[in-house]
Amino acid sequence: MTLPDQETEARDAITSGRTTLGIELGSTNIKACLIGPEHQVLAGGSHAWENELADGLWTYPLEAVHRGLQGAYAALVADVEQRYGVRPTTYAALGVSAMMHGYLAFDADDQLLVPFRTWRNTSTGPAAAELSELFGYNIPLRWSIAHLYQAILDDEPHVPQIASFTTLAGYVHRALTGRHVLGVGDASGMFPIDPATRDYDQRMLEQFRHLAAAKRPGLHVEGLLPEVLPAGADAGRLTADGAALLDPSGELRPGVLLCPPEGDAGTGMVATNAVAPRTGNISAGTSIFAMVVLEKPLTSVHHELDLVTTPAGDLVAMVHCNNGASELDAWAGVFGQFAAALGHPSSADDVFGALFTAALDGDADGGGLLAYNYLAGEPITGLEEGRPLIVRTPDSRLTLANVMRTQIYGAFGTLALGMNVLHGEGVAIDTMLAHGGMFRTAGVAQRFLAAAVDAPVAVGQTASEGGAWGIAVLAAYAAAVDGEDGPTLDAYLTEQVFADAALDVARPDADDVAGFAAYLERYSAGLAVERAATEAL
């Protein structure tokens, strides 16, 4: 097919409403992705935003959510018009995903009671510890139920007024459709899911009801939580108010099917075709996390591991690290400024490419350097706050190559500690599929990650598309199933989305594995330095 033919087919798909739209609210960007009937990317748009610290808690104002949605959608429409000369007015389906966890509590009039508390907040320690002991199930600090119970423990005045609570994706979905629902993957970061029923665990709901009754009689959490829906379910239709919210111009027509809203972990699994047992995916962004689909439940409770689900409801072990690539971004910015000061201004991609390529020449163990990427607290290593550090001994080898290799190693350090726990459970992994901007420079971060997790790491052509593409694919799946019995999500992805996908696979190099193991041993010992820094600075 010639390029003009492809453009004509894309234009026809857009004007006839046969495309699907995905919108993902990430920590620094809201991205919109339009895909065609063959799941190919047709256009995209984005809107930059940042969380803010208000009264000691990380948040995003709802006004910023609305502006960001409109900004990303407007950018996508402009991209469509520039590429194809038309403007979309409807879609076969659309979907919303966002950062998982956190706490958005509303009263009976759907008014927000307290500012949105994001996944970055680590103020829920007492609640998470008590719930983990009660349930015999790890409840991380960022989970929505931990936020709710901490508010109960702290006797916050808004608690008696709560009529519902949800995640960011759930909030946006309700604004677009009027339905208080959540995809099972995102719901599994609010409250534990029973993999047999693919719904909230009834035993734990009963335990929580009794626990909360002592402090808040009459509070029934099951009445506050969103309804759980699996991938492929009809999650509602775009209302007139929802269409006006997304597109104030009035061109977007209501009535579009929406798939269940999902979290960024679930869309990452979809974007890398990692929803089957013995597969996993690693998403590297502001935070970094690994998801491994389990063949059976774990034998023990581990604070390093969350148990969540795929968008289809299958059990997943998740290693979630609060800190990811932000410190790498900061160092790349410094080197970019240095290049400009020398009279050689360079694009961010060129700077990253040069620095990552230099890392390949570093010592396998980082030359004795240590890097901690802790901008925020890190629950896996027991730190409530973070201080980014580079530490070295007098006899370490301070070179550009070692600095950059160490920074990349540092981005994977906490993740590797969590993955070691999973290996100790005897969990087998055939392939880890990676996505995120870190993997745009071929053969660097991917190679070092393979050493860190001691497993093959694959990067596909869709890796850089990320979660916005993933939720667009989930929307396409919902449109294809259309309420009927259809293929499983795993079969749909394997047979229809990724059938011809090319994968670049990096297998662990023995020298890299040994070098990273030596680095990780120093990294673990050096956590005392990081802890001291949080106390002193």
From TrEMBL:
Q: Which SUPFAM superfamilies match?
A: Actin-like ATPase domain
Q: Name one GO molecular function term.
A: kinase activity
Q: Which domain of life is it from?
A: Bacteria
Gene3D superfamilies assigned to the protein according to its UniProt record, in alphabetical order: 3.30.420.40
Pfam families this protein is in?
FGGY_C, FGGY_N
Domain Carbohydrate kinase FGGY C-terminal span(s) in chain numbering: 281-479
Every copy of the Carbohydrate kinase FGGY N-terminal domain together lies at 20-244
Q: Which InterPro entries match?
A: ATPase_NBD, FGGY_C, FGGY_Carb_Kinase, FGGY_N
Which terms are listed as keywords in the entry?
Carbohydrate metabolism, Kinase, Transferase, Xylose metabolism
- UniProt similarity note: Belongs to the FGGY kinase family.
What protein is this chain from?
FGGY-family carbohydrate kinase
Organism of provenance:
Isoptericola chiayiensis
